[in-house]
Design goal:
Chain lengths: 110, 113
């Protein structure tokens, strides 16, 4: 079993829709969590960190569920420009490496 | 803003050539990383470094070596390039503080013929 798993998708949604992705992690010692966005043939870019209490940045909301060991990303009012691959990342802290999920592809259609 | 730069965006090399990929970051980050990314396989860690002259093997170090002579610079070396090393190579850096994210360079697309 992979340490970090994501549904690869693709998720095809119309503009204006709400879409949610989950990412499960297997190591309960994980301490830091992130969502990245990666456009085709570009580098991953940090979208947001995920805090224990959950956090929001405009149309994006990230949540952490430690009991069930998953993080989620909710995108409201989807835009065409949200089409990308979304990677989750998990770090155990203390200098341990970060583990990235393989990504979930999102296509937003007009 | 964190800036991570990589020496080349595209590179074409022949089998057996020695290849150098350079990465420079301007945020005084202690941690630096080299990944390769292939379709369907995601990001795979090749090597990382927590300090100058220090290196640790990642998940797929075979066929690669690294050098970190200065804090801001982390080089990836393919001693004898092979066709199965054709890939997108991504460098990243981060602070060692708990909760710090990694920041990526634009990547180098390497084609080995």
């Amino acid at each position: 079993r992979k340490e970090v798993e994501q549904d690869p998708g693709p998720f095809n949604v119309p503009e204006g829709a709400t879409v949610a992705f989950n990412c499960t992690y297997s190591n309960s010692a994980s301490q830091s969590f992130f969502w990245y966005r990666q456009d085709c043939r570009k580098e991953p870019k940090l979208l947001m960190s995920v805090y224990s209490s959950g956090n929001e940045d405009g149309r994006f909301t990230a949540q952490l569920n430690r009991a069930s060991q998953y993080i989620s990303l909710l995108i409201r009012d989807s835009k065409l420009s949200d089409s990308a691959t979304y990677l989750c990342a998990v770090n155990r802290g203390g200098g341990f490496k970060t583990i990235f999920g393989a990504g979930t592809r999102l296509f937003v259609k007009a | 803003d964190v800036k991570v730069t990589q020496s080349s965006r595209y590179l074409v090399k022949r089998t057996g050539e020695k290849v150098f990929l350079e990465c420079v970051q301007d945020m005084d980050h202690e941690n630096m990383f080299w990944y390769r990314q292939d379709p369907g396989l995601g990001l795979r860690l090749i090597y990382f470094s927590y300090d100058v002259k220090m290196k640790e093997k990642g998940d797929i170090p075979e066929g690669y070596s690294v050098s970190r002579e200065k804090k801001e610079r982390f080089s990836l070396i393919l001693e004898s390039a092979s066709t199965n090393q054709t890939s997108m190579y991504l460098c990243a850096s981060s602070s060692p503080r708990l909760g710090s994210a990694q920041y990526f360079g634009p990547g180098t697309r390497l084609l080995v013929l």
